Amino acid sequence: MTPRITLEDVSKAAGVSKSTASLVVRGSSRIPESTAAKVRDAMDQLGYVYNRSAANLRQSRSMTIGLVVTEIINPYFAELAMAVDEITHDAGYTIFIGYSRDLADRQHEIIASMIERQVDGLLLLPAPDTDPQKLAKQVNAAGVPLALLARRFPGFDYVGSNNVKGATLLGEHLAALGCRSVAFLGGRSASSLTEREEGLRKSLEPNGCEVWSSDELRSPITPEGGSDAVSRLFDLGRLPDAIIAYNDIVAQGIYDEMRRRGLEPGRDIAVASFDDTRIAAGQVPPLTSVAGFPQQVGAKGAEMLMTRLADGNADIPTQLALIQPQLKIRSSTATWRTRT
Amino acid sequence: MTPRITLEDVSKAAGVSKSTASLVVRGSSRIPESTAAKVRDAMDQLGYVYNRSAANLRQSRSMTIGLVVTEIINPYFAELAMAVDEITHDAGYTIFIGYSRDLADRQHEIIASMIERQVDGLLLLPAPDTDPQKLAKQVNAAGVPLALLARRFPGFDYVGSNNVKGATLLGEHLAALGCRSVAFLGGRSASSLTEREEGLRKSLEPNGCEVWSSDELRSPITPEGGSDAVSRLFDLGRLPDAIIAYNDIVAQGIYDEMRRRGLEPGRDIAVASFDDTRIAAGQVPPLTSVAGFPQQVGAKGAEMLMTRLADGNADIPTQLALIQPQLKIRSSTATWRTRT
DNA sequence: CTGAAAGCGCTTACAG
DNA sequence: CTGAAAGCGCTTACAG
């Protein structure tokens, strides 16, 4: 390995001081073009590569942010991550990514390692069993601004879908179809779950439609989780008019398990879900789903964080933003008819 | 903001020297437990957070690697990225992610910013129009080891699917079905494309089956790209017995466009593709696809890079690894019957 | 086993 | 407009 070329080498070759060379690298206008050109030539000659980490140490900012999500096989998370990248990339940030796999311990470990690496800010889609106190302590101790995405805890900046609204739209749709009972399946305790349930109850119960949603109907956010939840539901002995999945991934398992038991989704039981990832429209029958617009969540969250970073994380109060959902009605509910 | 707590503060509080404190942070056994305990107490008291970037500057390694992929909406890329994370996380690395969107310029910009941030190594799924010389120059100047994933250029470490083999399996299957003509659609010039085409020709042409694959049948790796490619194919006036898509994403568009033109995939024309992401099995009819095992590609690529990093990037010759593919036969080809 | 000093590659006041 | 010096927070020889 050739020894590393430093700014000192460049400045010597160009016949100027280190400070002058430093100013040139950063494009300062205080340096006359003639001097700057000499420095740039020297950089090219020597094959200089800027060591931003060294600069960071001095400036105490890294132009780096951390993004922690559950995983990215779920297209909802993938689109959200890409949107974050889009915004932060344009702002000159490079992003550290970590996948918590919805394990709070792994999540904290990831955050710790990002903090050690001096991230300027953090965007987190929190694991359901996150301890908010612990999280607050961890980021506050380091003075790193944090915005939560998609799932919220009080006291943190947050951008997510307006789940109550989305669930209300869905509930009204099902009530209009004449549903008398709805089972809400899958997901783990998180604000998104609570909010969706709230919207469903609010829109269905006043219309005389029962909402079944108990702890035993929760599940991991996987197709298998959905299948298992349906099984537990059917083992209770009663079939609802409609099944609402926590999201599209869970719904896939619900379709599968229903068919294994000889029930056709959309005909025997209406089925709907949340997120409206590309999975939903691709199902057979196409799945009614509440679009959550992860691109908007990610983009808005990134902007919110950028704002805090720009303001030196001053006394901006906690920021909240809700993205408006949209109900996509497809045949998994539209073709269902109440049994007479 | 409270002023940052440094190792110096800790050492003073613990009544030892900075070097001793440093040794304790890194768990050196040279420090007696009694001293170490005092230091650790001081760290807790003061709320010390390790500044790994400062350490990096001194040690000239960052325990950071860069991963650059096209995007992650395609589950193939998502699974690959997660597999890389799995391996590198366990080895103590944190990963910078960048999405090239298959734009060579953006790719180089991303790599440059990662290099400035002192990544120890780079994993790249290269954009099709990458200039290999330029890439080599960029990473060699910085002395950063690089492994290519899924698409190769000569002279770089590489892990990818054995595309020739996979395409051969698929070609043999189609030949056995009695196909007399096959159109290969979608994708952009890349080793993966060339290799797939090679395998198809090798297995089909000797069996009297034509392979149509020209520049005008290429397309972006999107459903729209697939639709457009089918349109261009049909505009040529002849229908093949089978259409092979560059991958599952392209195949989605092929299904759509065929139906728009009144042709049923799997009945009127057999359809198959590559990658076998969860998209394939979820299609109607289920899509025959050559599984490329992105988890294995990602994991093996990460291991390869870790090896180079462990060996101080010594004179290990270029490393190559091919992952064995597997043909998943589904009804999009299995139910097709030659017209008599 | 522990401490004082130098140095990683930059930037930042401060002089001139 | 440009230079010499100090410092960001660590680690690394080197003494003792």
Q: Short description, anyone?
A:
Chain A is built from 14 helices and twelve strands. The first copy, chain A, has 340 residues and is α/β, with parallel strands linked by helices.
**What's the SSE pattern of chain A?**
HHHHEHEHEHEEHEHEHEHEHEHEEH
Question: Quick one: which chains have the greatest interface?
Answer: A-B, 46 and 46 residues
The number of helical elements of chain A comes to 14
Radius of gyration of chain A, rounded?
26 Å
N- to C-terminal distance of chain A: 81 Å
Number of strands of chain A: 12
State the strand order across the main sheet of chain A.
Answer: 2-1-3-4-5-11
Secondary structure class of chain A reads: alpha/beta
Uncertain stretches of chain A:
none
Classify the beta-strand content of chain A into a percent band. 15-25%
- Reported by name, the CATH topology of the largest domain in chain A is Rossmann fold
Largest sheet of chain A: 6 strands, parallel
Question: Which oligomeric form is depicted?
Answer: homodimer
* The level-1 CATH class of the largest domain in chain A: Alpha Beta
**Helix proportion of residues of chain A, in percent?**
40-55%
CATH superfamily of the largest domain in chain A: Response regulator
What's the number of domains of chain A? Answer: 3
Overall pLDDT of chain A, averaged?
93
GO molecular function, one term (chains A, B): DNA binding
InterPro entries (chains A, B): Cro/C1-type_HTH (IPR001387), HTH_LacI (IPR000843), LacI/GalR-like_sensor (IPR046335), Lambda_DNA-bd_dom_sf (IPR010982), Peripla_BP_I (IPR028082)
Keywords (chains A, B): DNA-binding, Repressor, Transcription, Transcription regulation
Domain HTH cro/C1-type (chains A, B): 5-49
